[in-house]
């Protein structure tokens, strides 16, 4: 009987090893059913990111496409080039998206200049220049000048740095910070695809870390040119040296980003699957924003505190605009309270004015109405109109 048990155990182990090796063979190209499997060497997750790496390699050899075409920015990671369109978006002399009237080089003493920063929900991705909420507000009030410095895929860290570099010289009377709550996890990363595997933009970015007192420590963009990026991405060791432990997602799952074969789990199919699942944990933004001690929550408040210091030192008024996506509105409609409410309440206690557009969007039916949303999940022309209407009262004397 004992021998039969040993034989059965041996057969079971043998079949398990064979199954694992079959699985390992299936994962040889690094994908399983279209999803990238660890180790993430190189750290790209789908075909468009691989295409961008090929463009970067071509740039390193030939100089084409140039850095303007790739929207590369050594300080911010990516940014508009003044006067150069981004697809159908018109970009003016200051690097702002077009507003109803050209932005004067010098502020008019009779006007109120509002500088907007944020991500694609502030920039107005997927709609025409004249359909963005900032354009609508600019057109509605001749005494206001809107300078829209927002950029797609930005975190609030990049928004702050862009304001410091490009917004300060515009001498704003008001600073409007557009915040997409679901994008808050961008604050932890310096390699965009590590945070969002399906991101179209495979690019490095700066971020902030916190010192012992909760103050901000800037971590600069790890690469200073497209050629430098090509050099860094030429080996996993180069990539890891460049980020230097500063990407929260990579650091939390270091074995998943280690060079291929450097960890024993890389040599088993089940081990690679386990690393992949482990790396994908904690991607729901809500728990991070509900926990006042989380790094994301603390970074968010510190960044808004830095915006407040900027506004105070330059005599400007600061407003934080909450611009939720459809999933956030659906969660709000279900729970009766936004998962971002703790963060906005903390901002208000710190003296920051918060304007939450959620109620107006819910009233307009945006939690379910397709008319408020563009195909890629941004506000449609109608969604931008609803946001503009909800903010119009801010323009009253």
Characteristics:
397 residues, alpha/beta, Rossmann fold, five-stranded parallel β-sheet
Helical percentage: 40-55%
Q: How do the strands of the widest beta sheet line up side by side?
A: 6-5-7-10-11
CATH topology: Rossmann fold
Average pLDDT reading: 93
Order of helices and strands: HEEHEEEHHEHEHEEHHHHHHHEHHEHH
Q: CATH homologous superfamily?
A: SGNH hydrolase
Tell me the strand percentage band: 5-15%
Number of domain modules: 1
Largest sheet: 5 strands, parallel
The oligomerization state is: single chain
Radius of gyration using CA atoms only: 24 Å
CATH class: Alpha Beta
Query: Number of helical runs?
Result: 17
Number of strands: 11
Descriptive report:
Helix content is 42%, strand content 11%. The protein is built from 17 helices and eleven strands. The strands form four sheets. Strands 6-5-7-10-11 form a five-stranded parallel β-sheet, sandwiched between helices. It has a two-stranded antiparallel sheet with strand order 1-2. Strand 3 (72-73) and strand 4 form a beta hairpin. Helix 5 runs parallel beside helix 13. The protein has a single domain, classed as 3-Layer(aba) Sandwich (Rossmann fold), CATH 3.40.50.1110. It is of the alpha/beta class.
């Amino acid at each position: 009987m004992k021998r039969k048990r040993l034989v059965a155990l041996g057969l079971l182990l043998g079949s398990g090893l064979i199954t694992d090796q079959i699985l390992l063979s299936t994962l040889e190209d690094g994908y399983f059913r279209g999803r990238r499997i660890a180790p993430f060497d190189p750290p790209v997750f789908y075909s468009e990111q691989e295409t961008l790496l090929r463009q970067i390699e071509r740039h390193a050899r030939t100089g084409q496409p140039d850095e303007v075409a790739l929207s590369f920015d050594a300080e911010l990671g990516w940014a508009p080039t003044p006067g150069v369109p981004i697809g159908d978006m018109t970009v003016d002399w200051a690097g702002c998206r077009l507003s109803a009237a050209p932005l004067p080089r010098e502020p008019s003493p009779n006007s109120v200049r509002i500088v907007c920063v944020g991500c694609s929900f502030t920039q107005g991705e997927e709609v025409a220049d004249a359909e963005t909420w900032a354009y609508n507000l600019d057109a509605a009030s001749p005494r206001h000048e809107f300078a829209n410095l927002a950029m797609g895929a930005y975190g609030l860290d990049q928004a702050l740095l862009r304001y410091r570099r490009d917004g300060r010289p515009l001498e704003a009377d008001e600073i409007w910070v557009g915040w997409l709550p679901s994008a808050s996890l961008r604050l932890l990363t310096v390699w965009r695809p590590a945070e969002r595997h399906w991101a179209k933009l495979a690019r490095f970015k700066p971020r902030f870390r916190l010192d012992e007192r909760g103050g901000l420590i800037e971590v600069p963009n790890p690469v200073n040119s497209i050629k430098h990026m090509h050099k860094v991405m030429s080996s996993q060791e180069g990539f890891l040296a460049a980020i230097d432990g500063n990407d929260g997602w990579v650091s939390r799952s270091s074995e998943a980003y280690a060079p291929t074969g450097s960890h024993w789990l890389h040599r088993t199919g089940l081990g690679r699957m386990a690393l992949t699942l482990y790396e994908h944990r904690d991607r729901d933004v809500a728990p991070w924003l509900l926990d006042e001690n989380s790094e994301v929550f603390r970074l968010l408040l510190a960044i808004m505190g830095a915006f407040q210091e900027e506004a105070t030192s330059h005599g400007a008024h600061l407003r934080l605009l909450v611009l939720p996506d459809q999933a956030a509105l659906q969660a709000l409609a279900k729970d009766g309270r936004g998962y971002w409410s703790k963060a906005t309440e903390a901002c208000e206690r710190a003296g920051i004015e918060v304007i939450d557009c959620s109620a107006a969007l819910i009233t307009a039916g945006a939690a379910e109405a397709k008319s408020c949303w563009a195909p890629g999940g941004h506000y449609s022309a109608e969604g931008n109109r609803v946001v503009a209407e909800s903010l119009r009262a801010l323009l009253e004397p």
